[in-house]
Amino acid sequence: MPPAKPDAAATGNAVAARSMHGQSLRIPLAAIDEDPDQPRSVFDDAALHTMAESIRMHGVVQPIGVRACANGRYLLAFGARRLRASMLAGVADIPAVVWQSQGDEFAAQIIENQHRSNLANSDLAAAIARLTAEGSTIREIATICSLKDYQVTVFRQAENFPPALKGRMDNADMRALYDLYRQWTKTPEALLAALPYQDAFITVTDARRIVGELTGKPTGSIVLEREKAAAAQAADDASRDAAPATGPARAPRHMQGGQTGKDASLTSHSRHQAVDAPPRPQPLAQVQPHMPVFIVTVDDGPFGRLVLDRKAQRRGHALVSYGSDQVEVDILKIRIVGVR
After folding, report:
1. 3-class SS at 309?
2. Where do the structural domains in the chain lie, given as residue ranges?
3. What would the CATH number be for the domain defined by 8-115?
4. Which of 103, 157, 172, 248 could form a disulfide with 202 if both were Cys (CB 3.0 to 4.6 A apart)?
Protein backbone atom coordinates (compact mmCIF):
# COMPACT_ATOMS: atom_id res chain seq x y z
CA MET A 1 0.00 0.00 0.00
CA PRO A 2 1.56 3.37 -1.03
CA PRO A 3 2.21 5.98 1.68
CA ALA A 4 -0.67 8.26 2.56
CA LYS A 5 -0.60 11.67 0.93
CA PRO A 6 0.84 14.32 3.32
CA ASP A 7 -1.34 17.13 4.59
CA ALA A 8 -0.26 20.09 2.43
CA ALA A 9 -1.44 22.61 4.98
CA ALA A 10 0.81 21.14 7.66
CA THR A 11 4.13 21.63 5.89
CA GLY A 12 3.48 23.89 2.93
CA ASN A 13 5.71 21.68 0.80
CA ALA A 14 3.94 18.32 0.72
CA VAL A 15 2.64 18.55 -2.84
CA ALA A 16 6.02 19.84 -4.01
CA ALA A 17 7.73 17.01 -2.19
CA ARG A 18 5.77 14.39 -4.15
CA SER A 19 6.33 16.11 -7.48
CA MET A 20 10.01 16.78 -6.74
CA HIS A 21 10.90 13.20 -5.74
CA GLY A 22 14.70 12.86 -5.60
CA GLN A 23 15.28 16.61 -5.24
CA SER A 24 16.30 18.31 -2.03
CA LEU A 25 13.94 20.49 -0.02
CA ARG A 26 14.00 21.85 3.51
CA ILE A 27 11.76 20.17 6.07
CA PRO A 28 11.17 21.35 9.67
CA LEU A 29 12.88 19.10 12.21
CA ALA A 30 9.67 19.00 14.20
CA ALA A 31 7.92 17.25 11.28
CA ILE A 32 10.40 14.33 11.11
CA ASP A 33 10.15 11.12 13.17
CA GLU A 34 13.01 8.65 13.56
CA ASP A 35 12.49 5.09 12.34
CA PRO A 36 12.39 2.82 15.43
CA ASP A 37 13.57 -0.10 13.26
CA GLN A 38 16.66 1.58 11.81
CA PRO A 39 19.90 -0.49 12.05
CA ARG A 40 21.87 2.19 13.92
CA SER A 41 21.00 2.21 17.62
CA VAL A 42 24.26 3.35 19.28
CA PHE A 43 25.30 6.98 18.96
CA ASP A 44 28.54 8.63 20.09
CA ASP A 45 27.48 11.70 22.08
CA ALA A 46 30.86 13.40 21.65
CA ALA A 47 30.75 12.88 17.88
CA LEU A 48 27.20 14.24 17.71
CA HIS A 49 28.23 17.40 19.56
CA THR A 50 31.19 17.84 17.19
CA MET A 51 28.88 17.43 14.22
CA ALA A 52 26.42 19.89 15.75
CA GLU A 53 29.16 22.49 15.97
CA SER A 54 30.03 21.85 12.32
CA ILE A 55 26.36 22.29 11.36
CA ARG A 56 26.25 25.62 13.20
CA MET A 57 29.26 26.75 11.17
CA HIS A 58 28.51 25.30 7.73
CA GLY A 59 25.03 23.73 7.77
CA VAL A 60 24.16 20.19 6.66
CA VAL A 61 26.09 19.54 3.44
CA GLN A 62 24.39 16.28 2.37
CA PRO A 63 20.60 15.99 2.67
CA ILE A 64 18.98 13.27 4.75
CA GLY A 65 16.41 10.86 3.30
CA VAL A 66 12.80 10.78 4.47
CA ARG A 67 9.52 9.13 3.49
CA ALA A 68 6.21 10.98 3.39
CA CYS A 69 3.59 9.84 5.92
CA ALA A 70 0.07 10.89 6.84
CA ASN A 71 -0.79 14.14 8.57
CA GLY A 72 2.09 16.04 7.02
CA ARG A 73 4.80 14.12 8.85
CA TYR A 74 7.88 12.35 7.56
CA LEU A 75 9.67 9.17 8.63
CA LEU A 76 13.47 9.25 8.61
CA ALA A 77 15.02 6.83 6.12
CA PHE A 78 18.71 7.82 6.18
CA GLY A 79 20.75 10.28 8.23
CA ALA A 80 19.95 9.74 11.92
CA ARG A 81 23.27 11.27 13.01
CA ARG A 82 22.72 14.38 10.88
CA LEU A 83 19.17 14.72 12.20
CA ARG A 84 20.21 14.40 15.86
CA ALA A 85 23.16 16.73 15.43
CA SER A 86 20.89 19.31 13.78
CA MET A 87 18.61 19.13 16.81
CA LEU A 88 21.63 19.70 19.08
CA ALA A 89 22.68 22.62 16.87
CA GLY A 90 19.27 24.23 17.39
CA VAL A 91 18.44 24.72 13.69
CA ALA A 92 14.83 24.85 12.56
CA ASP A 93 14.94 22.72 9.41
CA ILE A 94 17.18 20.38 7.42
CA PRO A 95 17.75 19.63 3.73
CA ALA A 96 16.06 16.35 2.83
CA VAL A 97 15.18 14.14 -0.12
CA VAL A 98 11.79 12.42 -0.13
CA TRP A 99 12.17 8.73 -0.97
CA GLN A 100 9.66 6.13 -2.08
CA SER A 101 9.51 2.64 -0.62
CA GLN A 102 11.61 0.22 -2.71
CA GLY A 103 11.33 -3.29 -1.27
CA ASP A 104 13.57 -4.28 1.64
CA GLU A 105 14.07 -0.91 3.35
CA PHE A 106 16.03 -2.31 6.29
CA ALA A 107 18.67 -3.81 3.97
CA ALA A 108 18.87 -0.51 2.11
CA GLN A 109 19.48 1.30 5.41
CA ILE A 110 22.31 -1.09 6.31
CA ILE A 111 23.95 -0.58 2.90
CA GLU A 112 23.66 3.21 3.23
CA ASN A 113 25.21 3.16 6.70
CA GLN A 114 28.05 0.88 5.59
CA HIS A 115 28.85 3.02 2.57
CA ARG A 116 29.16 6.23 4.57
CA SER A 117 32.84 6.41 5.57
CA ASN A 118 35.50 9.00 6.30
CA LEU A 119 38.04 10.35 3.87
CA ALA A 120 41.15 8.26 3.30
CA ASN A 121 43.98 9.17 5.67
CA SER A 122 46.06 10.70 2.88
CA ASP A 123 43.14 12.89 1.71
CA LEU A 124 42.35 13.98 5.25
CA ALA A 125 45.99 14.80 5.95
CA ALA A 126 46.12 16.93 2.80
CA ALA A 127 42.91 18.74 3.78
CA ILE A 128 44.19 19.43 7.30
CA ALA A 129 47.50 20.71 5.90
CA ARG A 130 45.57 23.15 3.71
CA LEU A 131 43.34 24.32 6.58
CA THR A 132 46.45 24.81 8.74
CA ALA A 133 48.13 26.84 6.00
CA GLU A 134 45.01 29.01 5.75
CA GLY A 135 45.28 29.81 9.47
CA SER A 136 42.64 27.53 11.00
CA THR A 137 43.23 26.52 14.61
CA ILE A 138 43.32 22.94 15.87
CA ARG A 139 39.88 23.39 17.42
CA GLU A 140 38.41 24.75 14.18
CA ILE A 141 39.95 21.93 12.14
CA ALA A 142 38.64 19.36 14.61
CA THR A 143 35.12 20.76 14.19
CA ILE A 144 35.32 20.89 10.39
CA CYS A 145 36.78 17.38 10.05
CA SER A 146 34.76 15.79 12.88
CA LEU A 147 37.91 14.81 14.78
CA LYS A 148 39.19 15.15 18.32
CA ASP A 149 41.92 17.73 18.92
CA TYR A 150 44.67 15.17 19.44
CA GLN A 151 43.71 13.47 16.15
CA VAL A 152 44.26 16.74 14.31
CA THR A 153 47.77 17.00 15.77
CA VAL A 154 48.50 13.49 14.49
CA PHE A 155 47.43 14.37 10.94
CA ARG A 156 49.38 17.64 11.08
CA GLN A 157 52.57 15.63 11.63
CA ALA A 158 51.96 13.53 8.50
CA GLU A 159 53.89 15.90 6.26
CA ASN A 160 56.99 15.11 8.35
CA PHE A 161 56.66 11.33 7.93
CA PRO A 162 59.46 9.59 6.00
CA PRO A 163 58.39 8.17 2.61
CA ALA A 164 58.15 4.64 4.04
CA LEU A 165 55.45 5.79 6.49
CA LYS A 166 53.73 8.17 4.06
CA GLY A 167 53.31 5.26 1.68
CA ARG A 168 51.33 3.35 4.32
CA MET A 169 48.94 6.13 5.35
CA ASP A 170 45.90 4.54 3.71
CA ASN A 171 46.73 1.11 5.10
CA ALA A 172 47.33 1.91 8.76
CA ASP A 173 45.81 3.56 11.80
CA MET A 174 47.11 7.13 11.89
CA ARG A 175 47.73 6.81 15.64
CA ALA A 176 49.99 3.85 14.85
CA LEU A 177 51.92 5.79 12.22
CA TYR A 178 52.37 8.69 14.62
CA ASP A 179 53.90 6.40 17.28
CA LEU A 180 56.18 4.87 14.64
CA TYR A 181 57.15 8.33 13.40
CA ARG A 182 58.20 9.41 16.88
CA GLN A 183 60.43 6.35 17.18
CA TRP A 184 61.78 6.95 13.65
CA THR A 185 63.09 10.34 14.76
CA LYS A 186 65.27 8.48 17.32
CA THR A 187 66.23 5.24 15.52
CA PRO A 188 65.35 5.72 11.83
CA GLU A 189 67.11 2.72 10.31
CA ALA A 190 66.02 0.27 12.99
CA LEU A 191 62.41 1.46 12.81
CA LEU A 192 62.18 1.10 9.03
CA ALA A 193 63.76 -2.35 9.20
CA ALA A 194 61.14 -3.45 11.77
CA LEU A 195 58.12 -2.50 9.64
CA PRO A 196 55.91 -5.39 8.41
CA TYR A 197 55.49 -6.17 4.72
CA GLN A 198 54.08 -3.36 2.60
CA ASP A 199 50.47 -4.57 2.31
CA ALA A 200 50.06 -5.36 6.01
CA PHE A 201 47.64 -3.11 7.89
CA ILE A 202 49.41 -1.56 10.88
CA THR A 203 47.31 -1.28 14.02
CA VAL A 204 48.07 0.66 17.19
CA THR A 205 48.98 -2.61 18.90
CA ASP A 206 51.39 -3.46 16.06
CA ALA A 207 53.08 -0.08 16.35
CA ARG A 208 53.47 -0.27 20.11
CA ARG A 209 54.88 -3.78 19.83
CA ILE A 210 57.48 -2.55 17.33
CA VAL A 211 58.41 0.44 19.48
CA GLY A 212 58.56 -1.76 22.58
CA GLU A 213 60.93 -4.21 20.89
CA LEU A 214 63.23 -1.39 19.75
CA THR A 215 63.32 0.41 23.09
CA GLY A 216 62.88 -2.42 25.56
CA LYS A 217 60.27 -0.29 27.31
CA PRO A 218 56.59 -0.99 28.03
CA THR A 219 54.40 -0.73 24.97
CA GLY A 220 51.34 0.68 26.73
CA SER A 221 49.34 -2.39 25.67
CA ILE A 222 47.98 -4.27 28.68
CA VAL A 223 47.50 -7.42 26.59
CA LEU A 224 51.05 -7.40 25.24
CA GLU A 225 52.57 -6.70 28.63
CA ARG A 226 50.63 -9.57 30.20
CA GLU A 227 51.81 -11.90 27.42
CA LYS A 228 55.41 -10.79 27.92
CA ALA A 229 55.16 -11.29 31.67
CA ALA A 230 53.66 -14.76 31.23
CA ALA A 231 56.43 -15.74 28.79
CA ALA A 232 59.09 -14.45 31.18
CA GLN A 233 57.52 -16.36 34.06
CA ALA A 234 57.46 -19.57 32.00
CA ALA A 235 61.12 -19.14 30.96
CA ASP A 236 62.15 -18.50 34.55
CA ASP A 237 60.28 -21.56 35.80
CA ALA A 238 61.80 -23.73 33.06
CA SER A 239 65.35 -22.60 33.88
CA ARG A 240 64.73 -23.30 37.58
CA ASP A 241 63.40 -26.79 36.85
CA ALA A 242 66.43 -27.57 34.68
CA ALA A 243 68.96 -26.53 37.37
CA PRO A 244 71.00 -29.38 38.97
CA ALA A 245 69.52 -30.80 42.16
CA THR A 246 72.87 -30.30 43.93
CA GLY A 247 72.94 -26.60 43.23
CA PRO A 248 72.36 -24.02 45.91
CA ALA A 249 68.80 -23.93 47.11
CA ARG A 250 66.76 -20.88 46.20
CA ALA A 251 64.81 -19.00 48.79
CA PRO A 252 61.04 -18.89 48.37
CA ARG A 253 59.96 -16.39 45.70
CA HIS A 254 58.43 -14.03 48.22
CA MET A 255 61.78 -13.92 50.06
CA GLN A 256 64.02 -13.23 47.05
CA GLY A 257 65.28 -9.68 47.06
CA GLY A 258 62.12 -8.42 48.73
CA GLN A 259 60.09 -9.07 45.56
CA THR A 260 56.33 -9.18 45.65
CA GLY A 261 53.59 -10.14 43.24
CA LYS A 262 53.92 -6.72 41.63
CA ASP A 263 57.20 -7.87 40.02
CA ALA A 264 55.30 -10.18 37.66
CA SER A 265 55.59 -7.55 34.91
CA LEU A 266 59.42 -7.62 34.94
CA THR A 267 61.16 -9.28 32.02
CA SER A 268 63.11 -12.49 32.60
CA HIS A 269 66.43 -10.65 32.37
CA SER A 270 65.50 -7.97 34.88
CA ARG A 271 64.04 -10.54 37.29
CA HIS A 272 67.27 -12.62 37.30
CA GLN A 273 69.26 -9.47 37.79
CA ALA A 274 67.14 -8.56 40.81
CA VAL A 275 67.44 -12.05 42.35
CA ASP A 276 71.02 -13.04 41.56
CA ALA A 277 72.88 -9.76 41.91
CA PRO A 278 72.22 -6.82 44.21
CA PRO A 279 71.80 -3.50 42.40
CA ARG A 280 75.02 -1.60 41.95
CA PRO A 281 75.19 1.71 43.79
CA GLN A 282 74.83 4.63 41.40
CA PRO A 283 76.90 7.79 41.51
CA LEU A 284 75.21 10.54 43.44
CA ALA A 285 74.81 12.66 40.33
CA GLN A 286 72.52 10.03 38.77
CA VAL A 287 70.01 9.94 41.61
CA GLN A 288 69.48 13.65 42.07
CA PRO A 289 65.80 14.67 42.03
CA HIS A 290 64.50 15.63 38.58
CA MET A 291 61.14 16.40 36.99
CA PRO A 292 59.60 13.13 35.70
CA VAL A 293 58.27 12.83 32.16
CA PHE A 294 54.81 11.28 32.12
CA ILE A 295 53.93 9.46 28.89
CA VAL A 296 50.14 9.47 28.51
CA THR A 297 47.40 8.43 26.14
CA VAL A 298 43.98 10.05 25.70
CA ASP A 299 41.03 7.84 24.69
CA ASP A 300 43.63 5.14 23.88
CA GLY A 301 45.04 7.44 21.20
CA PRO A 302 48.70 8.12 20.36
CA PHE A 303 51.30 8.60 23.05
CA GLY A 304 51.92 12.16 24.21
CA ARG A 305 53.79 13.90 27.01
CA LEU A 306 51.98 15.49 29.94
CA VAL A 307 53.03 19.13 30.24
CA LEU A 308 53.89 19.90 33.86
CA ASP A 309 55.24 23.44 33.64
CA ARG A 310 52.13 25.05 32.11
CA LYS A 311 48.47 25.09 33.07
CA ALA A 312 45.53 24.60 30.72
CA GLN A 313 43.18 27.53 30.31
CA ARG A 314 40.06 25.46 30.87
CA ARG A 315 39.27 24.13 34.31
CA GLY A 316 39.52 20.35 34.66
CA HIS A 317 41.88 20.13 31.69
CA ALA A 318 45.62 19.55 31.28
CA LEU A 319 48.07 20.13 28.47
CA VAL A 320 49.42 17.17 26.50
CA SER A 321 52.27 17.64 24.05
CA TYR A 322 52.23 15.88 20.68
CA GLY A 323 55.38 16.85 18.83
CA SER A 324 55.21 20.62 18.32
CA ASP A 325 51.52 20.85 19.31
CA GLN A 326 50.11 21.18 22.82
CA VAL A 327 46.46 20.24 23.27
CA GLU A 328 44.09 20.81 26.19
CA VAL A 329 42.38 17.55 27.19
CA ASP A 330 39.95 16.49 29.90
CA ILE A 331 42.02 15.16 32.81
CA LEU A 332 39.51 12.32 33.29
CA LYS A 333 40.43 10.98 29.83
CA ILE A 334 44.19 10.92 30.47
CA ARG A 335 45.83 7.56 31.19
CA ILE A 336 49.49 7.39 32.23
CA VAL A 337 51.31 4.58 30.39
CA GLY A 338 54.89 5.29 31.45
CA VAL A 339 57.23 7.52 33.44
CA ARG A 340 60.73 8.48 32.35
Report:
1. coil
2. 8-115, 118-160, 289-339
3. 3.90.1530.30
4. 172
Determine if the pTM surpasses 0.85: no
Question: CATH number of the domain at 289-339, please?
Answer: 2.30.30.150
Write the CB contacts of 240 (distance below 8 Å, at least 6 apart in sequence).
Answer: 250
CATH T-level topology, domain 118-160: Arc Repressor Mutant, subunit A (1.10.10)
Q: What are the b/e assignments for 270-297, b being 16+ CB within 10 Å? A: ebeebbeeeeeeeeeeeeeeeeeebbbb
